[in-house]
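[Automated response] Your request has been received and processed.

Submitted sequence:
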Amino acid sequence: MSVHKDTKRGTWYVKIKYTDWTGEKRETTRRGFAKKKDAQLFEQDFHRQKQGAHSMTFKALYDLYMEDIKPRIRPTTYRSKEYMFTSKVLPFFANLPCDQITPAKIRQWQNELVKGDYQETYLRTINNQVAAIFNFAVNYYGLPTNPAKRAGMIGKSHADAMRFWTVDDFQKFINHTTTPLYRISFLILFWTGMRVGEFLALTLEDFDFDKNLIHITKSYARLDNKTIIGPPKTPKSRRDVSIPAFLVDEVQQFIQAQHSINPNARLFETGKHGLSYEMKRVAAQVGIEKIRLHDLRHSHASYLIHRGIPIIAISQRLGHEKIETTLQTYAHLYPQERDMIIAAIESDPATKGGSNGGHGK
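Generated structure:
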């Protein structure tokens, strides 16, 4: 018998023997069940999970999925997924067997989410997480089909309107930003388009003032009140970003004003919260639209687009893994391209006399 009564605590516990993926015999104990039936259900689900049965509960599938992806993603990404599942998904599906979660049940869950006050892009992100975990079950645990895929999508992949500042907006803003640390932070973010985590990880060693370059090789994050310096978001996020001479001067002035600098320590000792607060405060003071800290990256991309910089160069500068990412994110900023195409066609002498199909005589 594997389920036992804990007479001291008045609860039930289960001892389970199993064979792990390497073929080794192992034993695990789980305590604290209020009822014997709860312990028995846990044991049944544990064996279904180890056997890879698609009749396991969604919670058991979630445990397998999170264990599988943990070494493959960044700790902050893992924590974000964990939060979304525990707060938005598990309360609805946790105890349901995976093979009983139908497209209709997925749509019921979607409808509950849609009732909430969530942004369209956040709804899409949560839905994508559920689709991903069921893909995992289809690929590795024999689930016949992905119910989330059949249920359809909710939300939007991109916001309807991207918010960004023009150069004029930014000049009004920066002229009223008097704290040196905040001033140099906003200048770098606006004029390079780097991610906030990439900026916060910069050290003195990352600046090449002879070539006017910043070497982006790492990213900063906070998790459980600890600083994490890890790799940037994607392999192509490792890059050199060129900076204009006026920004070089600003950075050097900031460095010269510091008492002492460890070349291998973070150069800009601030965080996202402090930067966001200052950004909102100054924006309100000067009367310009309040945007997010990340929107400075969009502002830089918008500036480059309107200066006629080729999209592939913008993609490389932003550190996007694929040019498709850049196109999908900023395609709406290219309405003038349609007019340029028509103007190019109509101004071509070969297209004159359109009565014969634009092929000339």
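Summary generated for your ticket: The chain has 15 helices and eight strands. The longest helix spans residues 120-140.
If you did not submit this request, please reply to this message.
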